[in-house]
Design brief:
2 helices, 222 residues, 19 strands, mainly beta, six-stranded antiparallel beta sheet, single chain, 6% helix, nine-stranded mixed beta sheet, globular
């Protein structure tokens, strides 16, 4: 049974009205752990469906993917092949980036093994708040090599008027955000004000993220 996770965001009516009038989306990013270098975080979800009380929820359902897209700033990663996968499994990648999932891998992580001499881009996807399966991250997958990626229950949220698609490589935060660790608590409550930013009672499970802050150190952890 997949574990449910959630963040409830509380806002005033005036903040919601100003966000809507300013065409702000709520963006979400999900963190991973890996020793693989050269990767980048991607926009996990975006939504205009928010109000004075907004529930952001997700479950532990994953896919591994390969792609021919390049990992470049503001570029979009389009999955060419995707397979449902569980923690502890490996996706073996054959010619054309086609994957086959086998029950042989690293505990609590997802492994992607390139059995060809062709370089691909790869990563893991997770079910987002609207039920769609969207990529979290992108890494180079060199010929004959294996990437091991562990999804972790840490999420970054921010409102932004920048119009960005899911799957887009993001290097800098476009606006103030909040980085939340749900490892010890599956559900937390936070608040947002368009002028004063995010608040969460000062608990240790969250930290503020300033506009223009680098995203990778938070979202790709070694």
């Amino acid at each position: 049974m997949a574990t449910p996770y959630g963040v409830t965001i509380t806002m005033s009516a005036s903040t919601v009205t100003n966000l809507i009038n300013g065409n702000f989306n709520l963006y979400g990013f999900k963190a991973v752990q890996t020793t693989q270098s050269g990767g980048a975080p991607l926009v996990w979800f975006k939504t205009l469906n928010y109000s004075t009380t907004t529930a952001v929820s997700w479950q532990e359902q994953y896919q591994a993917y390969t792609s021919n897209s390049s990992i470049i700033a503001n570029g979009q990663i389009n999955a060419s092949n995707s397979n449902n996968i569980n923690l502890g499994q490996t996706m073996d990648v054959a010619t054309g980036g086609i994957g086959t999932v086998v029950n042989d891998g690293t505990d609590l992580a997802i492994s992607i093994l390139n059995q060809t001499t062709t370089q691909y881009t790869c990563g893991i996807s997770q079910t987002a708040t609207d039920g769609s399966m969207n990529p979290l991250c992108a890494f180079p997958l060199y010929g004959g090599n294996m990437d091991v990626i562990a999804p972790i229950e840490k999420i970054l949220l921010m409102f932004s008027s920048n119009q960005i698609n899911t799957g887009t490589v993001i290097q800098k935060a476009y606006s103030p955000g909040i980085f939340i660790d749900l490892t010890a608590n599956n559900n937390v409550n936070v608040a947002y004000d368009l002028n004063t930013g995010w608040s969460w009672g000062g608990y240790s499970w969250a930290q503020s993220v300033t506009a223009n802050a680098s995203m990778s150190p938070l979202l790709i952890q070694s």
